[in-house]
Amino acid sequence: xxxxxxxxxxxxxxxxxxxxxxLRVGPESPNYIEVPQTLxxxxxxxxxxxxTLPVPREIFPARRPDKPTPAYISAVTPEPSKVKTIKKxxxxxxxxxxxxxxxxxxxxxxxEGLLELYERKQTTVASMTRRSAxxxxxxxxVLRQPERDDxxxxxxxxVQGLMEQPSILPDPDREIRIAQSRERVLEKQLQKAAERxxxxxxxxxxxRDFIVTEEQLMKEIEDKFRESGVEEWRSDTGTGTNVWxxxxxxxxxSIVNTQTKDDNxxxxxxxxxxxxxxxxxxxxxx
Length: 286
Prior knowledge:
mainly alpha, single chain, 8 helices
């Protein structure tokens, strides 16, 4: 069917509209939708500079005051200890002469560069010092200058009774509250110090059982995990020291029965209570 409709069917396809070359772009192009432009051209956008510049290196630090001296310059730009003689028949004569000229240029540039940079630094520091001194002098002059007549004459009048009133509200209990706060702070510091000393003493007492050497570790592993046939494997009356002969973990009911009905359990509880009493009396862990 033809796009240009008529009373009779067309024998071939006919396009009755035209598309400009500018609009022959895909939807992914930013020119797919034509946006009207202003008559006055827009200013070009400032390009975004990516990254950050490194901090300039301090060439003459305070710890190296000898850099601009002739001794330092002569030390960093020494003359060649052995001057190579160029033979006329040498095929590399031009290359050797060019290398010697380049080396001399590098030494000369380093000498002149150090002196010029030091002179530039001295000039910059002197200029900064002058500007800073001028700003400080201007600030002092502005602070010490008398009040202007227009400000003095147009200033609001204040009753003498209001001027004599203190700017801070009276606080008669201030010293008492400060003393109480100081006592509370001192008490907390003493509690922290006592707690720290107690923790250090507990660590010292428990350090006797610490494993600090490889021999102690191997001995402890041998005692806890040995597989030799010892008395611990022959009966279940005692738990022993072997980790494989501990049996099932105790239940809450068995722990309560042991502590209340068994003589060994009651004796253990008494020992723990006695230990706590002794620790409180001596002021340290047992």
